[in-house]
Amino acid sequence: MDPEEWLAQDPDPETVAELRGILASGDEAALADRFGARLEFGTAGLRGELGAGPNRMNRVTVMRAAAGLAARLRQDGGGGVVIGYDARHGSERFALDTAAVVTGAGLSAWLLPRPLPTPVLAFAVRHLGAAAGVMVTASHNPPRDNGYKVYWGDGAQIVPPLDAEISAAIDAVGRVDGLPLGKDWTVLGEEIVEAYLRALSGLPLGDAREVATAYTPLHGVGRDVLLSAFERAGFPAPAVVPEQAEPDPDFPTVAFPNPEEPGAMDLVLGLASDSGADLVIANDPDADRCAVAVPDGPGWRQLTGDEVGGLLAEHVLRHTAGDRLVVTTIVSSSLLAAIAAAHGARSARTLTGFKWIMKAGEGIVYGYEEALGHSVGGVVRDKDGIGAALAVAALAAEAARDGRTLTDLLDDQARRYGLHATAQLSLRVEDLALIPEALARLRAAPPAELAGRAVERFEDLAEGVDGLPPTEGLRLRLAGPARIVVRPSGTERKLKCYLEVVRPADEDPAAARAQAQEDLDALREALSAALALP
């Protein structure tokens, strides 16, 4: 599609003005960036920078995606689509465009009543019996981005081959100014939020409630729903960081609105110290992720997603019975399998992403991924930062009632199962071509050792491992034992590396943790040198 054809169909005066300005300036590089490629629809839906052109998130891109989704749904006989959105730039407009296209295609559409967390949308799909769901969000990406996440009727994100089928249907869509647009969608009321909150009341939370929590929604949409969830469950109201309490699409107090990024939790940690909190909780902007920090001497220690995963798995298994399945991914800690075995439960490992976790089998009582995503109790078949926050608060309150802390519980697990220490190495690039080049170099010349540890097995995930579908990435099994997984991020310009070292159960936990940190630091340095990215 050339720029003039794009201008002729674009309904948005802002992107029309942007593109006309680029054309008038003769900026060929800017044109090539916008029109030399297009955002690819995949299992993460769409995600990219806002702006004009097929390689940007904009109203034309969104309307084409909605039309393709509607066409694919009609192949299965139609059905309704529930649509949610966060508070990012353009989110509400993209949601309204989706509703117009879906209803214009002869399908039903329900629109959430206001900007709400992603887990409310994922819950609503099954609650309403919808055939599909759309969440307009870029989650924790920078302010200039937005995204379009698609769920199917089971309430989980789409997986292959459905993503390719929807992508093909999008490719067949003509000009969006020729699409029939409807007006008769249903705007839901607060009853959908009430239904979600009622469902959370059935989580395995135990009966301890006394815990003082400091909380930040990181300028996102999680605050009101989380406060309501805490109140209904009987927990004291968390103290909320005032500077980050209201939704703000510019995320003015953080460099990246991601609780994993350095500095993102500084304000909530300061509030926790000032307010005498026992626990720190942060959601990302669409509240599907949950970060946790606990007191550590005079300061605070942010727990890794794997540490929270191990603690919540044990908590859920203590408070449930029967045939239970707990699930994590191949880049997460290997600890979960040991915990499951000790509690007489089943465990499974999947490819990265909750779309795979929730497809692992029947009887899932808990699933997590190390990137701060948790699903507790099966209420939501996706990451749920609100439900996870409740479960963490319940666990902390239960420990406090017994005169213990979450750190004590981590030490207990180290003594019982060995210390499973994990870390990440994330290498951000401007040129995405650098990522496949780095992986190709590693495939061509796999290292014989890293940081003094022999590489005992080198596995290409693109060939399929452990009975899982092929995926782009590499896994290295090292002596020690230790493990490294290297893969491209599905949503950001990053090469992500996941490291794990395991220390024996008979070691003192503090000494084991210190040694593991040295080992992880050495592996990070050696791996970074081996990847040779600028």
UniProtKB/TrEMBL annotation:
The keyword Lipid metabolism does not apply. Residues 429-505 form the Alpha-D-phosphohexomutase C-terminal domain. Its cofactor is Mg(2+). InterPro entries: A-D-PHexomutase_a/b/a-I, A-D-PHexomutase_a/b/a-I/II/III, A-D-PHexomutase_a/b/a-II, A-D-PHexomutase_a/b/a-III, A-D-PHexomutase_C, A-D-PHexomutase_C_sf, A-D-PHexomutase_CS, Alpha-D-phosphohexomutase_SF. It comes from the Bacteria. Residues 39-172, 210-297, 304-417 form the Alpha-D-phosphohexomutase alpha/beta/alpha domain. Keywords: Isomerase, Magnesium, Metal-binding, Phosphoprotein. Pfam families: PGM_PMM_I, PGM_PMM_II, PGM_PMM_III, PGM_PMM_IV. The keyword Metal-binding applies. PANTHER family: PHOSPHOGLUCOMUTASE 2B-RELATED, PHOSPHOMANNOMUTASE 45A. Belongs to the phosphohexose mutase family. This is Phospho-sugar mutase. It comes from Actinomadura vinacea.
